[in-house]
Specification:
Rossmann fold; 4 helices; about 25% strand; binds adenosine-5'-triphosphate; binds magnesium ion
Length: about 140
């Protein structure tokens, strides 16, 4: 599925609408260059899960946990030097838990991502303007 957004607000709204359909155990992987809008999408996603707490990028903590309609496990693995660090934080408890996982920079830990994950890529296209983003969503093949 392919989406186009023309503002931060639209990307937030897209994240929100996708989260409204999320189920326990779902994993959403977010990839895209620095500053494309992964965290904006994540904030919308959190809102769509009913999270009311302020959502910040977990760049230094790797994972933040929020309470919503379902628990949200928001990862940002950008600073992970070695997938081994994921074992140290006990990532399996999250990926195979009762909440919904959302992973920024998931490509960096691709080998740890379960097959049922949904992959989302956020891309700029400067020819279409500074605020334009193409967001491609790929569901797992079942
Ligand atoms: N259509 C759009 N969708 C999302 N963000 C947009 C859009 N247009 C402009 N922006 C701006 O792009 C920036 C996206 O920042 P954000 O922190 O979400 O990126 P990121 O992909 O998480 O980056 P990083 O990899 O550094 O964590 C924000 O400053 C936002 O205002
Ligand atoms: Mg981010």
């Amino acid at each position: 599925m392919e989406f186009e957004t023309w503002s931060e607000q639209e990307t937030f709204a897209l994240g929100k609408s996708i989260a409204e359909k999320a189920k326990a155990g779902d994993i959403y992987c977010l990839d895209g260059d620095l500053g494309t809008g992964k965290t904006v999408f994540s904030k919308g996603f959190a809102a769509g899960l009913g999270v009311t707490e302020h959502v910040t990028s977990p760049t230094f903590t790797i994972v933040n946990e929020y309470e919503g309609r379902l628990p949200l496990y928001h990862f940002d693995v950008y600073r992970i030097a070695d997938p081994e660090e994921m074992y140290e934080i006990g990532y399996e408890e999250y990926f195979y838990g009762e909440g919904v996982s959302l992973v920024e920079w998931a490509e960096l830990i691709r080998e740890l991502i379960p097959a049922h994950a949904v992959w989302i890529t956020v891309e700029k296209d400067l020819q279409k303007g500074l605020d334009y983003r193409r967001i491609v969503l790929k569901e797992a093949e079942t």
